[in-house]
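Let's see one such:

===
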Amino acid sequence: QVQLVESGGGLVHPGGSLRLSCTASGINFSLYSMGWYRQAPGKQRELVAKITTGSSTNYADSVKGRFTISRDNAKNTVYLQMDNLKPEDTANYYCNAASLRQYWGQGTQVTVSS
């Protein structure tokens, strides 16, 4: 059974930081591209950042220079370091694993508010 379990969300003030983690089980993690997506109320789910099996990365324009995605294949975990958070970053953040198939986590809520 494949599971992606996110953690690290919460409430933070504008300008603050959070680090999200997603730990996978039931898949050969090193063979999957991993991504973070987010969905705000009333909006479509959007790609935030992605990291390939070779650790190439790409980011949404809105988070470039503020967010960093990384992976630790030994721990089956992908991270999203989020700095200088803004109220518009408020959303539910989802982990995604993609290869021939793709899998989703349940999401973790990030709220940026003063």
About this structure: Residues 3 and 25 are 5 Å apart (CA to CA). The mean pLDDT is 97.
